[in-house]
Amino acid sequence: MLPPVLQGTIENNAFTDWNFSYSALITALLMGFIYFIYRDFIVLQEENKSKFYKIKCTFCSLLYLLMISVIIRFLPLNGKEIAVKLPANPSAVTFCLLNFLFSAFTEEVLYRFYAPEILCNMLEEKTGKKKALIISEIFVGMMFALGHRYAGIPAVINSVLGYAVLRMNIKKTGSLAMNTALHFIYNIAQLLI
Q1: 32 and 113 in contact (C-beta within 8 Å)?
Q2: What SS3 class is residue 57?
Q3: What's the DSSP call for residue 79?
Q4: Is the pTM of this model over 0.85?
């Protein structure tokens, strides 16, 4: 979780030159390995929910994320201007979509699946379940938000609120795939609006 938090800036072409990102692929593969190892130890939901319920929760979460994003854009907050350019050709579209998919999967495994659950389990014995849950959610949410500070205060606020919505969605649906799809679609929407 620390590398994104310690990163102060991003490359100028991060959202303008859409090339294949080997680092994003390697990170996503590493997160896939972590998910494979811990998927049987971390239980996100006790009972099975219907696919309709999962889709309904995920769709509502997407609407909440989009509302948050639009509201934050209208708040008088200063943010850093980051150059963003739509992909200009088919290969750029493909690389953009792959980068968004890799980053969505990576962030969902690390920040919504693994870190809050493991931290809560580590703290539970010392602080009790309720305090451990609160501490772990706040800590991981802040780490996620600070990883977006390169874009200024609006992005940090959006990330905190986005963390909460995405975390609630994964807890309600118990589906990493649904959360990854939600995050992926949200990233695309952010590019377009």
Answers
A1: no
A2: helix
A3: B
A4: yes
